[in-house]
Specification:
Layout: H1 10-27, H2 37-44, H3 48-54, H4 58-82, H5 91-108, H6 110-122, H7 139-146, H8 157-177, H9 193-208
Helix pairs in contact: 1-2, 4-6, 5-8, 5-9, 8-9
């Protein structure tokens, strides 16, 4: 990125790490637009001069956070792929693990994703050509599901998988990134992430028409 000067020495790398961690910490408290450079510098235990020697502006720092999110998501996908033989895993397991990873990544990078989505909606992408949300790609999961079309009773499995993944992804984004925008009634039980995973998995399996009833014998 032209607006970010890559660190070459260990000390510079450490300074960059502190800036990123400080911003991530602040994003847990307020929106990116309400965070000042001076707050980032203070929490990082650094100086304004050190900040601008590394970043052209605050938007360039957000681009670095997006890159960090992308790397983390790619690593998560590799861990998922290596965790078991997914070609033989029950379809219910594939669905549950997709939803679980979706919830985990949105929760882990909530502040960064809120800022990126906001810029995508308003057109203020700047040095960030994409929101970063495309890094949480449902494609591998969709392929796994389509490969098991014999277990899907929906009349059009391809369409069902595509729309089902999109609906679940949208629900996770709204619930975790922008819960204040939700118009649904307040649940009677705490909507924890575990409950979110369980219920969205159930909803997706139901939409696909997957029989999850108890098997006899």
């Amino acid at each position: 990125m032209d607006r970010v000067r890559p660190p070459r020495q260990r000390r510079s790398q450490e300074t960059l790490r502190r800036f990123l961690e400080a911003t991530q910490s602040l994003l847990g408290e307020k929106h990116f637009d309400n965070i000042s450079v001076s707050e980032i510098v203070e929490r990082a235990g650094s100086s304004v001069g050190a900040f601008y020697s590394r970043f052209e502006d605050k938007e360039a720092l957000l681009g670095c956070l997006r890159d960090a999110f992308a790397r983390d998501t790619e690593e998560e996908a590799r861990r998922f792929a290596a965790s078991r033989d997914w070609d033989t895993a029950p379809l219910e397991t594939v669905v549950a693990e997709f939803v679980r990873m979706l919830v985990h990544q949105h929760r882990r990078h909530r502040g960064t994703l809120r800022a990126l989505v906001g810029r995508s909606i308003t057109g203020r992408t700047g040095v960030i050509p994409q929101t970063g949300l495309e890094m949480i790609s449902p494609t591998p999961f969709g392929e796994l599901m389509i490969a098991r079309r014999s277990e899907i009773s929906h009349p059009n499995p391809d369409v069902a998988v595509h729309l089902g993944l999109a609906m679940v992804t949208g629900a996770v984004r709204e619930r975790i990134l922008f819960p204040e925008l939700s118009t649904s009634a307040k649940p009677t039980v705490p909507l924890t992430d575990a409950v979110l995973v369980e219920e969205l998995s159930r909803a997706l399996l139901g939409f696909l028409g997957v029989n999850t009833g108890k098997r006899s014998g």
